[in-house]
């Protein structure tokens, strides 16, 4: 998923979870539990996505920081082109 779209979806999911968790919609425990589960699931997904990106070598939202990071694709490609 595109990171910008994913961030927007996560923000909306957290907002829905907070609205459900508060007594805005109704006073039932089911709404509060659904809101808490929505917020926790969104946080868990965000942590999983962050871990997955970190495994791929993405260290920052800034492209230059990713290029300058040790082990970046640009650095590895430059090392492969060096004569032995």
Tell me what you see in this structure.
The protein is an all-alpha fold and 84 residues long. Helix content is 73%, strand content 0%. The protein has one domain. Helix 1 packs antiparallel against helix 2.
Describe the protein's topology:
Layout: H1 3-21, H2 29-55, H3 63-68, H4 73-81
Helix pairs in contact: 1-2
Count of spatially separate domains:
1
Residues in helix, %:
over 70%
Instruction: Report the average pLDDT across residues.
Output: 79
Order of helices and strands: HHHH
Structural class: mainly alpha
Tally of contiguous helical segments: 4
Task: Give the number of DSSP strands.
Answer: 0
Beta-strand content: under 5%
The rounded Rg comes to 20 Å
Low-confidence stretches: none
How far is it from the N-terminal to the C-terminal residue, by CA? 40 Å
The geometry reads as: rod-shaped
Instruction: Profile the largest sheet.
Output: none
Protein traits:
84 residues, single chain, 73% helix, rod-shaped, mainly alpha
Compact description:
With 84 residues, the protein is mostly helical.
